[in-house]
C-alpha cells in the first residue's frame, strides 16, 4: 500500500501500551474517593460509561459522571494518583511490537506522534516508565491540543506541530471508537483500529475505521513505502 502518508498519530493505552485493566482500577479508586461503592449499581453504571468512552479525555469523563466541576476535579486527581501508583509499581508495559513499529514508521521517513486521553503528568509517567521519552517525534495530551477525543484536535494539532502539509497525509491508529472518530473528523486517509485494547472490530468500524489490525505491529506493512 504505497501512499503519501507522512504523519502517523498513535494512541497509547491499548494501542502501543498495554492497559491490562489499569484504567478501570484507577477509576474504581476515583469513584470510591467520592463515595461510590465498588459493586454497587451506581458503580456499574459509571463503569459502563467509562468503558464506552475509552479514549476520551479523563476529566471530560468525570465531568459527565459527577456533574459538578469540583467533584469532577476531585475524581480526576484521585484517578491520576491511583494510575501513577500502578505505573510506579511496575504495571506498565509496551505492547509486543509497538516500539519496533514506531521505529520502523520513523525509519520509513514518517513523523510519529503519540497521543492520549490522560493528562500530561500521567502521559509523562508512562513514557518515563517505558523509557520512551524520545521514541516519537512528539507527544500530545488533550490540554495541549484544545479538546480531546472524539474531536479532531489531537490529530490536527499533530499536523500543525510537525509541519505536515495536508490532512490526507495523516494516518491515525487506536483501539477505541473515539480514536476512529478523531481520525475521520480530522480527514485522515488511514484510520486504523487495533484489536489489542478496549473496543471490538464492530465498534471500530462503526466509528469509521478504514482498516482493522490485530495490533499496531501490522501498521508499517499496511502503510508501506512513502509514495
From TrEMBL:
Taxonomic superkingdom: Bacteria
Cross-referenced Pfam families: Hydrolase
InterPro entries per record: HAD-like_hydrolase_sf, HAD-like_sf, HAD_sf, PhnX-like
Species of provenance: Kitasatospora purpeofusca
Transmembrane segment boundaries: none
Name of protein: Phosphonatase-like hydrolase
Segments forming a coiled coil: none
Xref: PANTHER family: PHOSPHOGLYCOLATE PHOSPHATASE (PTHR43434), PHOSPHONOACETALDEHYDE HYDROLASE (PTHR43434:SF19)
Upper lineage: Bacteria, Bacillati, Actinomycetota, Actinomycetes, Kitasatosporales
Amino acid at each position: 500500500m504505497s501512499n503519501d502518508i507522512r504523519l502517523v498519530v498513535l494512541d497509547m493505552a491499548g494501542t502501543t501500551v498495554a492497559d491490562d485493566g489499569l484504567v478501570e482500577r484507577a477509576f474504581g479508586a476515583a469513584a470510591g474517593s467520592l463515595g461510590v461503592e465498588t459493586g454497587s449499581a451506581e458503580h456499574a453504571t459509571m463503569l459502563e460509561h467509562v468503558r464506552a468512552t475509552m479514549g476520551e479525555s479523563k476529566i471530560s469523563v468525570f465531568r459527565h459522571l459527577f456533574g459538578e466541576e469540583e467533584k469532577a476535579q476531585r475524581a480526576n486527581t484521585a484517578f491520576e494518583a491511583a494510575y501513577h501508583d500502578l505505573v510506579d509499581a511496575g504495571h506498565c508495559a509496551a505492547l509486543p511490537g509497538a516500539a519496533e513499529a514506531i521505529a520502523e514508521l520513523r525509519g520509513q521517513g514518517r513523523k510519529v506522534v503519540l497521543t492520549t486521553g490522560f493528562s500530561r503528568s500521567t502521559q509523562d509517567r508512562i513514557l518515563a516508565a517505558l523509557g520512551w521519552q524520545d521514541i516519537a517525534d512528539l507527544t500530545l495530551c488533550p490540554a495541549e491540543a484544545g479538546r480531546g477525543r472524539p474531536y479532531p484536535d489531537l490529530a490536527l494539532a499533530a499536523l500543525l506541530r510537525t509541519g505536515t502539509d495536508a490532512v490526507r497525509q495523516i494516518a491515525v491508529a487506536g483501539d477505541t471508537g473515539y480514536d476512529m472518530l478523531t481520525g475521520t473528523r480530522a480527514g485522515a486517509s488511514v484510520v486504523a483500529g487495533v484489536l489489542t485494547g478496549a473496543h471490538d472490530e464492530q465498534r471500530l468500524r462503526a466509528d469509521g475505521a478504514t482498516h482493522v489490525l490485530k495490533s499496531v505491529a501490522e501498521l508499517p506493512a499496511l502503510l508501506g513505502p512513502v509514495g
